[in-house]
Each structure stands twice: as structure tokens, then as C-alpha cells.
Design a protein that fits this description.
The structure holds two protein chains of two kinds.
Chain A lengths: L14 E4 L5 E6 L5 E8 L13 H8 L11 H8 L3 E6 L4 E8 L4 H12 L7 H20 L6 H9 L14 H6 L2 H11 L5 E7 L3 H12 L25 E6 L5 E8 L5 H14 L5 H8 L4 E8 L6 E9 L5 H18 L3 H19 L2 H15 L4 H8 L5 H11 L6 E7 L11
Parallel strand pairs in A: 2-6, 7-11
Antiparallel strand pairs in A: 1-2, 3-5, 3-6, 4-5, 8-10, 8-11, 9-10
Helix pairs in contact in A: 1-4, 1-7, 3-8, 9-12, 9-15, 10-11, 11-15
Chain B lengths: L26 E4 L5 E6 L5 E8 L13 H8 L9 H11 L2 E6 L4 E8 L3 H13 L5 H18 L3 H14 L12 H6 L2 H11 L6 E6 L3 H11 L25 E5 L5 E9 L8 H13 L5 H9 L3 E8 L7 E9 L3 H17 L4 H12 L2 H4 L3 H13 L6 H10 L3 H11 L6 E6 L4
Parallel strand pairs in B: 2-6, 7-11
Antiparallel strand pairs in B: 1-2, 3-5, 3-6, 4-5, 8-10, 8-11, 9-10
Helix pairs in contact in B: 1-7, 3-8, 9-16, 10-11, 11-16, 12-15
The chains are: A alpha+beta, B alpha+beta.
Chain lengths: 438, 438
């Protein structure tokens, strides 16, 4: 083999068109499977919530599956399943999405259903619907966060990292008292403000021509009024943990200590973000990576170590998470992580490390984008937070050009000790000692 | 949006005939040493998914050392006759290859995901780790210690405790009753020589198979396989299965594993299912789909989640096995409704035994299953996964071609018979991990 990145870049050709009401339509034709992915993304997320009403964006997403005037409760999933389709939705910091994948004969069905809930949702929204979905979401919070070992760590870590009212400070699932307090009027108001054609991007990807896609979009969404314009939210100040909350310890019902470190970094799509993404892979993806060697394979301090980078818009979040082995104190993990980051910042990284990391990024990008559903989401996200779908290719094309010096500088500039929020989760005091398993 | 009354109500679209699914037609051949190969090339994304399947699951391991198969699977990349663990990882990471062993009860599977440009060297490395691992003492002890820690950490999570208990209740001392990753005692005690002997006995070309899917040149693949696996010989030792278990001892009873102060209860309802080759498999799939195959529209989801709001999700499934495996319902509910949720689950099971499902509901389930085929062969990893299942369980090669007609032929009487055989509350054990009284 040759130790270079293949010249052939991944290409996702699109055609874009805007409806008169401002809704943006993006078509990506790929005939390799007889299916079409329909992806509707609204530019609204938990960052648009008000204090005291956290969790509203996500609870509204749940309600959106509960029916509309001409497709009453139970029909949404039922109709899509009948034609062999799947559907789901998700809420995150910057966006909320609704998506369906169907055999290509059925593409009009999800469009009709999305029109329905964009135009005819409020008449069916009632107190009973809210109570049932409030219960489902409260159970989701318990199951996915509260009852899960280490499940509350990310919530606390974000509070520490985004002190001072930054809208990434609170979790998408919402705080329990807020979930209990959300009213019908809250849900109505949020829907009326944000669920408008002008605030939405629609991607049609797969076994469908762009011309057909545009015609269908016009038919199902062209007559909808644009809705009120949304005042641009005030941009928050640059996030940074305050000095007094940059390090904390939290007890949980767990057997092993786990260390979380996070940094606020440049946002998705910037050159620095791409260099940081390469750094995240270089640090902990693959057994030969720096942190795997220092903490797990050679250091034998940790059972596992992971690094991640959020592709969020206001800023990115870079994180490192590692779990102690039996008999190892979390301080040893903290200093080992620090040492590795300092080494990268001081001495740099090799060409081969960068090459391998870029290949592994590409491997994951290819795996993810092999599905039209994921491709539709990536295009919708690029259009939503970077302004146009072509930005997806533009960002991917930055990777092969990343240099070892850029990676070193990213570590030096963004991952310094003074910028870190560190949370150590330890077994609850009084819990029985874990026997040394070895 | 403004008053809905001003907007046109569009009729629900009528759909054309569904597209013909494109089921891959792979090339099949056997290498001189007996290794079966299934090759399904398709241009699209520059990726190859290789899936190597060995009859080396936990059923094959020595009964006194549960965990042998899992340790062997995870030690493949930790040193071979020609490369140290560090050299192997450095090479795999530079290629950007993803290597993921998964050790089940029946099989050990190794999934290797490669960028197409690295196929030849990727296959060579795969052959190296599968045929010539050396289980170095140092790495063996590290993986052993990490596995033991992981076992302890796993039990911090009530869902895992519930899963393990359910298996134990259904299968008792049968190997299906022990998690496929083994037990702490087994992992702690198994000597290195036993690992090497297990590898020598069960990692053999005759009996194994490799599936390739994605973008590759079939001739290049064949050459690489011939070259890489050239020195590998012999047939895997036959795996001796004990007789399948009879009805669970605690059938009809509730088993409670206390979890003080839990806000949610993990519920499992488990009984015996059927072997993957059972002629009833597709009929059972339809019956299960009606009950809990879809978390929203199945009868369990419609009741527990959509009607009551007690849970975030509930599902049921037949597990695939060489021998009759389990049939399992799983959910997590509000602690205070635990008893009610168990009762409602059993009520839905009984209803399917006692009342004939009406034609409309049955039609819906059949359509959902049949029409989803186009989505099942979209990516290299999904193609490789589905083809390896057919080969591993020795199912008819035209399974997916015959699937729609087989689903169509399922009758309401079939569903009732399956329900009586598998969903009868008298034949299943209820397992609750939570704060419920026993």
C-alpha cells in the first residue's frame, strides 16, 4: 500500500432550491438502493430554551409524534411502518430533526406527514397528550441518565464548562423540575416561534431526482406561510469555566472512579475544529493512540479511555473520559492525561500519527455516510449551522491537509490545563469496597 | 403558523407499487484449505466490510473456564508469530482499519472495516491475527485484568443485572444461561495454555467463513485471501451442544432482584424461543412484531408507552441460536407501576394467545416486515451481516427472495399458535430488578 490518503475525496452532489416561504430544499440523488431519506431539520435546539423551561425543545419533539389534525394519534408510526419505512426524531443543542426512510414509491407519505405536523399540529395538542409524553420523557431521563452509572456526569460537566448562563450549560433532556413545570402554552409558543418553513431545511436523499424532489417540496410545503421572523439570539460570551468550578468530585453508585475533562473549543467547520478532530482520533481512537498507550496498554491505569469532539455551532466541546482500573486513584489518571496533552503541545506529533488519524476519521465518515439517512442528516446539519449543504464536503476536504504542526498548536492553544473543566466521579462513600478483581 | 383553517388540506397520498428490493447476489467459493468465502462487491462508498465467522462461541469453551472464548477473541490483536501487539496496532491504526471481535454463544465473529484502498494489506493483517496469535503472557494478564474490571463495572447497571438474571432463569446450567463473555471465576482461572488450545481447536478454516461486502475488485480479494490464509489448515473441532433446556424452573413465577431506592424497575419476561433454522422462524417474527417488535406501534408499546406513559420503550424479540434460544420482553418502567406493568405485559401476551388477531392488524405487520427489505441491504456492513447470518446458520441462500412470500403466507391461526407456544405466561419467567417487594 501507499502511505497516503486516497486522492478520491468523498462527494455528495446536491441541488438546492428555496421555496417562497423561505424553506430550503436540498436534493441528493443516489440510486444505489431503492429508498429515499426525508430529513426535516429545524434550526432550534435546547440552546433556544429559557431558564426554568429546560427540556422544552425535546418534549415538543416527543409531542410532534402524537398526531395532527388529519393524521390523528397513532397514525404517524403506523402509516410509515405499513409502507416499510422507519422514522425518528432527535433534539440537540443547536437543532431538532425529524426523519423518515422509505422505499422510493412511498416518498410522498413522509412529506404529507411532515406538512401535517408543520401546519395542523396545534389543534390536536392537548393536556392529556402533554401529560403522557411528560411521563415518557421523565422515564427517559431516569433510564438514560439518572439510573445509569455515571449518567449525571455530562450534565454537571457542562454546568462547569459553561458557567455564567451560556446556552450549552443545560442538558437537552432538561432538568426534572422544569420537565414537571412545562405548560401547554410553553409548548404552543415554542412551536409557533420555531416550527416554520423559514426556519427549516428539507433534505431528500436517495432514489429520487432533484427535479422530482423540488416539485414534491413545492406541492407539500409551498403554500405554507413563512411564519414570524425569528430575532437572532444574542451570541453568548466565549465560554470558559470559572476558576472556582474548574475541578469537582461527584459521588455515584459506581464501582470505579472515572475522570471527565472537557474544553470549549472553536465551533464545527473551522480549520481549528478539523485539527482538533484529528487530535481526538490521534489521542484515543485505536490501540496505538497516545492515550490508549499511556493510560491503558502501557500505563495500566485505566480500563478504558475515550476522546470526543462535539460538532456544535456556537463552540465545539472537546472531551476526554477514562475509567480507573482496580486499585488506581483517579489523580493518577488526571495527571497522565495532562502529561500526554502537554507532550503533544510541547513536542508535537509525527506525520504517521496524523496520517493514521485522518484515515480513521475517514473510515468513520465513510461508515456513517454509507447510509442515505445519515448523509441526509449531515447535509441538513451543514445547511443549518454552516449555511449551505456544500459545507459538508468542504469540511471533509480539510482533513487531508491537516499538518502535524496544526495538531500540536490545537493542543497548545485549546487544551491547556487552565481552560479545562474536570469532573471526577467516585464510588459513593460507605459503599462496600470493590475486591481487587485481579 | 397562522390559523390552520386557511391552509389547504391535502389528501393523503396514494402510493405506487413498491420497488423490487435489490438483494445482493454474492459469489461463493471455497479456498483450498476449506475456508468458505462469500463475496458481494458493489460500487458505492470506498469501503470494504469483512466478516469472519468461526464456530468458536462460548458454547465451545471448556465448561470449567467460562470466558475462554471471549478472552481468545480479544487477544487476537495482542501479538502474533511475526508481530508484537504494538506493531500490530500501529499497522492497523495507520491503515485506519477498524477491528471488532464479538463473541457470542454460538460464534465468534470478527468484523474488519477497511477503506477500499487498503484491502490487500487489511486482509493480510486479518489473516495474521486470526491464524497466528501467540497470546503473550504480559498482554494476556492485562486483558484478563481489564475484563475482570469490566465485569464488575457492568453490574453497576440494573439493566445488565436483569439481562444476566433472565438468561440464567431461562437456561440454567446450559451454556446459553451464562453470558457469552464468561464469569469472573472463569476469566480469573483460565490458564494461557487453555486459550492457545481453544484457538488451535476452533480457529480452523474448514468450518469458518468470511464474507466481504462493499467496493472491491473480486480478483484482488480472492488473491489476498489465498495468500493471507495459505498456511492455515484443518477443520474446527465439532461443538458439542448439551440437550436444550426444558421449561424454565421458575416458569409462571416472578423473580425479584432487589435494587434499593431505584426510581425505575428493569423488567424482563423470558421464555424459550426457537432455533434460527426453525421452520416457524418467520411466523414467529410476525407474531412477535405484533406484540413488541416495534417499540411504538407494537401492542406492548401502544399500551405501556403511548397509552400509559410508564416507560420510554418496550420491545420483544426471539434471539437467534443454533439451539433454541430465548424469547425476551424488555422494558424499564416507573418503580411505582412495576406490578401493573408486569400485569399489562402478561395481559397483552395472553390476549394474543386467546383472541385471533384481526386481518387489518396482521396485514399491517406483514407489510411492515416485507416492505422493509429495500432498507436492509444499504451499506457494506449491513450486507456483510445479513449474508454471514445466512451462511453461519446454514439457511437457504435464497432466503431473502423467498421472504416476502413466506411472510405473506402467515395466518392469524399461525400467530395464535406461536403465541400459545411462546408467549404463554405459564411458560415464561418474570424478572424484576428494582425496588419491588418479592
Amino acid at each position: 500500500m501507499t502511505d497516503t490518503i486516497a486522492a478520491s475525496a468523498l462527494r455528495f452532489p446536491v441541488r438546492t432550491h428555496a421555496l417562497e416561504n423561505g424553506m430550503r430544499i436540498i436534493c441528493h440523488e443516489d440510486r444505489s438502493a431503492p429508498i429515499v431519506a426525508v430529513h426535516l431539520m429545524y434550526h432550534v435546539g435546547s440552546r433556544d430554551e429559557q431558564p426554568g423551561r429546560t427540556g422544552l425543545a425535546h418534549l415538543l419533539e416527543h409531542l410532534m409524534f402524537e398526531g395532527s389534525l388529519h393524521a390523528p394519534k397513532g397514525q404517524f408510526d403506523d402509516l410509515l411502518e405499513r409502507v416499510g419505512g422507519t422514522n425518528n426524531g432527535s433534539t440537540w443543542l443547536d437543532r431538532t430533526n425529524y426523519f423518515e426512510t422509505v422505499p422510493s414509491n412511498a416518498v410522498e407519505l413522509p412529506l404529507w406527514l411532515e406538512r401535517e405536523r408543520m401546519a395542523f399540529f396545534l389543534p390536536v395538542l392537548d393536556a392529556e397528550m402533554l401529560e403522557v409524553q411528560r411521563g415518557v420523557v421523565i422515564n427517559e431521563r431516569r433510564q438514560a441518565y439518572e439510573a445509569r452509572p455515571y449518567g449525571m456526569a455530562d450534565e454537571r460537566l457542562h454546568q462547569m464548562l459553561f458557567a455564567g448562563g451560556h446556552p450549552y450549560a443545560w442538558p437537552t433532556i432538561g432538568y426534572m423540575p422544569d420537565l414537571e413545570a412545562i405548560t401547554l402554552d410553553d409548548a404552543r409558543g415554542f412551536y409557533q416561534t420555531y416550527y416554520t418553513p423559514g426556519n427549516a431545511v428539507l433534505v431528500l436523499a436517495g432514489d429520487l431526482s432533484a427535479d422530482d424532489g423540488f416539485a414534491l417540496a413545492e406541492r407539500y410545503f409551498g403554500d405554507l406561510p413563512p411564519g414570524p421572523s425569528i430575532p437572532p439570539p444574542a451570541l453568548p460570551a466565549d465560554p470558559a469555566p470559572s476558576a472556582d468550578v474548574s475541578h469537582e468530585t461527584m459521588e455515584d453508585d459506581v464501582s470505579f472512579p472515572r475522570v471527565y475533562a472537557a474544553w470549549a473549543v472553536p465551533g464545527y467547520g473551522t480549520r481549528e475544529w478539523v485539527a482538533l478532530d484529528v487530535l481526538a482520533y490521534l489521542l484515543a481512537d485505536g490501540d496505538s493512540s497516545r492515550l490508549q498507550r499511556a493510560l491503558v496498554r502501557e500505563g495500566r491505569l485505566a480500563q478504558d479511555v475515550d476522546s470526543y469532539l462535539y460538532n456544535t455551532a456556537l463552540c465545539g466541546v472537546f472531551g476526554v473520559v477514562c475509567t480507573a482500573r482496580s486499585g488506581i486513584e483517579p489523580q493518577a489518571l488526571e495527571s497522565a492525561v495532562r502529561r500526554v496533552l502537554d507532550e503533544v503541545a510541547a513536542d508535537g506529533v509525527s506525520d504517521d500519527e496524523v496520517l493514521g488519524a485522518v484515515r480513521r476519521v475517514r473510515r468513520d465518515q465513510v461508515s456513517e455516510l454509507a447510509m442515505v439517512e445519515e448523509r441526509a442528516e449531515a447535509l441538513a446539519y451543514a445547511a443549518t449551522v454552516l449555511g449551505e449543504p456544500e459545507a459538508l464536503e468542504r469540511v471533509m476536504d480539510l482533513y487531508p491537509a491537516v499538518t502535524p504542526e496544526e495538531v500540536r498548536r490545537a493542543a497548545e492553544e485549546w487544551l491547556g490545563a487552565h481552560r479545562a473543566a474536570t469532573l471526577v466521579v467516585v464510588p459513593r462513600a460507605g459503599a462496600e469496597e470493590v475486591a481487587d478483581a485481579a | 403558523m397562522p390559523p390552520e383553517s386557511r391552509l389547504a388540506v391535502l389528501p393523503r397520498p396514494t402510493l405506487g407499487p413498491p420497488p423490487a428490493p435489490r438483494v445482493p447476489r454474492p459469489e461463493r467459493y471455497t479456498l483450498v484449505n476449506g475456508l468458505r468465502v462469500v463475496a458481494a462487491p458493489r460500487a458505492g462508498v470506498p469501503q470494504v466490510a469483512l466478516r469472519l465467522v468461526l464456530p468458536a462461541g462460548s458454547v465451545a469453551e471448556p465448561r470449567e473456564h467460562p470466558g475462554t472464548a471471549s478472552l481468545v477473541g480479544h487477544l487476537l490483536t495482542e501479538g502474533t508469530e511475526t508481530k508484537s501487539a504494538d506493531e500490530l496496532h500501529a499497522r492497523l491504526d495507520l491503515l485506519g482499519a477498524g477491528v471488532a471481535p464479538s463473541v457470542g454463544h454460538d460464534f465468534t465473529e470478527l468484523e474488519v472495516v477497511l477503506l477500499s484502498e487498503t484491502l490487500a494489506e487489511g486482509v493480510a493483517l486479518l489473516a495474521e491475527i486470526v491464524t497466528r496469535p501467540t497470546f503473550p503472557a504480559d498482554q494476556t494478564e492485562r486483558i484478563r485484568a481489564e475484563s475482570l474490571d469490566a465485569l464488575i463495572a457492568r453490574l453497576d447497571e440494573p439493566a445488565n443485572v436483569a439481562d444476566d438474571r433472565a438468561l440464567r432463569e431461562a437456561f440454567g446450567a446450559h451454556p446459553y444461561g451464562t453470558p457469552s463473555f464468561g464469569t469472573a471465576e472463569g476469566i480469573r482461572g483460565v490458564p494461557r495454555e487453555v486459550l492457545a488450545a481453544f484457538h488451535a481447536a476452533h480457529y480452523r478454516p474448514a468450518g469458518a467463513l468470511v464474507v466481504a461486502a462493499g467496493e472491491f475488485d473480486p480478483d484482488e480479494l480472492r488473491e489476498a485471501l489465498e495468500r493471507g490464509f495459505a498456511g492455515w489448515n484443518g477443520a474446527a473441532e465439532p461443538v458439542l451442544y448439551p440437550p436444550p433446556p426444558a421449561r424454565p424452573t421458575n416458569a409462571g413465577r416472578l423473580v425479584v432482584h432487589p435494587w434499593p431506592d431505584a426510581e425505575q424497575s428493569e423488567i424482563r419476561v423470558i421464555g424459550l424461543g426457537m432455533e434460527r433454522r426453525d421452520p416457524d422462524w418467520i411466523r414467529a417474527g410476525v407474531a412477535n412484531f405484533l406484540l413488541g417488535g416495534s417499540t411504538i406501534t407494537g401492542r406492548l408499546g401502544a399500551n405501556l408507552r403511548e397509552d400509559k406513559g410508564w416507560t420510554y420503550g418496550v420491545r420483544s424479540a426471539f434471539a437467534a441460536g443454533v439451539q433454541p434460544s430465548g424469547w425476551l420482553v424488555e422494558t424499564a418502567v416507573d418503580a411505582e407501576v412495576t406490578a401493573d406493568a408486569v400485569a399489562e405485559t402478561l395481559r397483552e401476551m395472553r390476549r394474543l394467545m386467546e383472541e385471533r388477531v384481526d386481518e387489518a392488524e396482521l396485514r399491517r405487520a406483514k407489510d411492515a416486515l416485507m416492505l422493509s427489505i429495500p432498507r436492509l441491504f444499504e451499506t457494506p456492513t449491513s450486507v456483510a451481516g445479513r449474508l454471514s447470518t445466512l451462511e453461519a446458520y446454514d439457511l437457504p441462500r435464497d432466503w431473502w427472495d423467498r421472504y416476502p412470500a413466506a411472510v405473506e403466507a402467515v395466518t392469524a391461526d399461525d400467530v395464535r399458535r406461536i403465541a400459545r407456544e411462546h408467549f404463554d405466561p405459564d411458560r415464561v419467567v418474570r424478572v424484576v430488578v428494582g425496588a419491588m417487594e418479592g
